[in-house]
Amino acid sequence: MIINSLLCCFLLFLQLAATHPIDPADTVYYSDSGFVEFTSSVPMHSFSGKSEQLNGMIDFEENIIDFYIDLTTLKTGIGKRDRDMYQTLNTEEHPFAEFTGSFEAPSPIPDQRTKVTAIGEFTINGVTKEVEVQGFIEPNEEGLLLEAKWSLLLSDYDIEPPGILFYRVDDTQEIRIQLVLKPTSRQELTAENETGA
Amino acid sequence: MISVTANAQLPRERAQTDGPIENTFWATTNIGISTVQNVDKHNLESSVMHTFGLVRGGIDTFYGLDDGANTKIGLDYGISNKFSVGISRMTFNKVVDLRGKYNILRQTRSGSVTVDLAIKSSLGISTLSGVGLGFNERLSYFTSVMIARKSDRMSLQLTPMIAHFNAPVAGNPHQLFGLGVLTSYELNNRLALSAEYLPVIGQRNAFSKDALAVALNINTGGHVFQLFLASSQWHNEQYIMANNRDAFWKGEFRFGFNIHRVFGSGGD
């Protein structure tokens, strides 16, 4: 009888733990499968490279935004061009492009599509610049949908646009990201990262 | 000001901690000899190759450019990242070449695999008209094993090869063996020097000489241009072994250039 009661209590506890909402103060929004696309122009045509391995984390409580991508996951559809791109971006030495910053105006988790501005440091090829990026955050069934677009100049990051004479990749690159960040317990994420590391 | 500490960042993790060494050579052909470099899956490589007359013809022949070119136009398609098939057509003997290349091993960044290993086989069909040859007599076969290693900016490849001609000129052997020695040195991301030497081992065709070539490679990001000086005016390996009659070191070399361009063709 006592054992049955204890078992019931235990099962009830498990059910409550599973359905209990995550403590907002302990919640960060995280994804390791975000979409990123860059578009490059060369005379008379343009091409794009894509990856679905953008890692991102937003911590509204601490007002922290952190994103990074392994640049070797970017694919343009032509293997040789990918290899040339990795060489141009110096991925052997600097494999990541990363952004760490915060919202210009800290706010609670948005409950509708909201325009946001992030200010932070963007690093690629080992060169870091302060940037301002505008985007939108929109709640959905899984968490938060984040979309953002901005341009960067390769020359700002000591990257020489590939090409010869007048036939060169344009200095300006258009970047677009889109990802669904799922609510995750900060402790869980830390533990996951510690285990994964 | 940004008040983010390093502790607030996600730990940076590589998607792949190991993988093949890239760009062992910049194109599927070094100058005249195939490299371990293959065409990626669903990519199409087009190549145009030209070799002219001997440079020592001087200004009268505009250093060989007036003597007419042996031109080869080819297409290679990546069935997978390891296997490609190709077709080309060369001016001399109007040879149509059907070929396949397979990468057995790829040298890895971690050093777990120390060399690239690939195999190439091809069938040459002379389509020259008016010479009274039957179909079988027009055929030649070629197989090579390519073993390469890249260290920093320097690549080296050894290519033992065998060629078989169904109907060689009287007195010449049916089979020829050779050992291609290829090298490439990257000056930077855009320029590389390369060279290749192809001695025939054992029996050889009358008057034939071992072939040598040196090249400057220019990578524009879209194209690879190879500007070279070569003893042989021929293109496919079996024909270089069989028909080169010029000795580079005696000043018998010619200007030539190759243009390689890779296209995506959809798919992943």
Poorly predicted runs of chain A are 16-20
Q: Numbering strands along the chain, what is their spatial order in the largest sheet of chain A?
A: 1-2-3-4-5-6-7-10
Query: Which structural class do the helices and strands of chain B define?
Result: mainly beta
Main beta sheet of chain B, described? 12 strands, antiparallel, barrel
Number of strands of chain B: 13
Radius of gyration of chain A: 21 Å
Order of strands across the main sheet of chain B: 1-2-3-4-5-6-7-8-9-11-12-13
Multimeric state of these chains?
heterodimer
CATH domain fold name of chain B: Porin
Beta-strand share of residues of chain B: over 45%
Total beta-strand segments of chain A = 10
Principal-axis shape of chain A equals elongated
**Helix content estimate of chain A:** 10-25%
Average the pLDDT over all residues of chain B and give the rounded result: 93
The rounded Rg of chain B comes to 21 Å
Keywords:
heterodimer, A: 197 residues, alpha+beta, Lipocalin, two-stranded antiparallel ribbon, 3 helices, 10 strands, 20% helix, B: 268 residues, mainly beta, Porin, twelve-stranded antiparallel β-barrel
